[in-house]
Amino acid sequence: MELKNKHITIIGAGNLGLAITKGLLKSGLLQENKLTITKRKLDGLDQFVEKGIRVTSNNKEAAAQADIILLAVQPQQLSAVIEEIKDTLTNKLIISTLTGVKLHALQEYVGDTNQVVRAMPNTALAVQQSMTCISSNASKNNTQLVESIFAVLGKTIVIEDELMQAATVMGASGIAFWLRLVRATTQGGVQLGFDAPEAQKIAVQTCLGAASLLQNGSNHPESEIDKVTTPKGCTISGLNEMEHQGLSSALIQGLVTSFKKINEI
Questions:
Q1: Count of CB atoms situated within 10 Å of the CB of 52
Q2: Residue 198 falls within a domain, yes or no?
């Protein structure tokens, strides 16, 4: 399957479904493809209709006309949604963003005539900066097709399905963890004398700069840290106090706790 001139249906226009929609609009990918989004209540979706996206509450009709169906509902809604659209599911490419629902279970739900791919993005899709982890039961071509969809929304990586729970914690929940760090840095800046907007601007750009140093280079984080720490300096004093207070340990334990929780779902 090639992506050009395909009809994509997103079932579930919640926070994630709308983030994907916004990202696809910005990417230009919809210039050669059609998009339908579904939601039980259509209030507040007029902006998408104005941009040429079809909006409906009829999941079955939306699935029937789709070449690619992206499931962006809650895991507990999966059975009901599949029951609603099952008569339309023949030779479709199904992309699931559902937390905790593994490939073999998805395949059982949708049947053997359909190909299944799991994708775990994060809400930075809306600004085309997502980290999307992908696992697949589909052909190589269809797996690459899913990669191409999410590649316009950020970075992608294909992983084993058994790692998708961990990927959810690091990539999807990870947005909240990093935002909390930015928020804490902002609060610290306010205590040091900045107004909140100024402190946040400094915190956000510094966070972006730190990430860019690693993304655009090949250095280990500690190598970059060494460049800004001098003997008896303020940076090493601050770092050592943070470690004394358990910064790294707290982050690691937070990831582990989230991982334990997701495995209970």
A1: 11
A2: yes
β-sheet bridge partners, residue 155: 131
Residues recorded for the chain: 265
182-187 mean pLDDT: 98
48 shares a domain with 26: yes
Hey, how many other C-beta atoms are within 10 angstroms of the C-beta on 184?
A: 11
68 SS3 class: strand
Residues with Cβ within 8 Å of 197's Cβ and at least 6 positions away in sequence, in order, are none
What ranges make up the beta strands (E) of 121-246?
130-136, 154-158
User: Which pTM does this prediction carry?
Assistant: 0.91
Kindly report, residue by residue over 112-150, the tens digit of the pLDDT: 999 999 999 998 988 899 999 999 999 999 999 999 999
Per-residue pLDDT of 81-115, as tens digits, reads: 999 999 999 999 999 999 989 999 999 999 999 99
Which range of residues forms the domain containing residue 234?
167-262
Q: Answer yes or no: do 18 and 120 share one domain.
A: yes
Residue 44: how many other CB atoms lie within 10 Å: 10
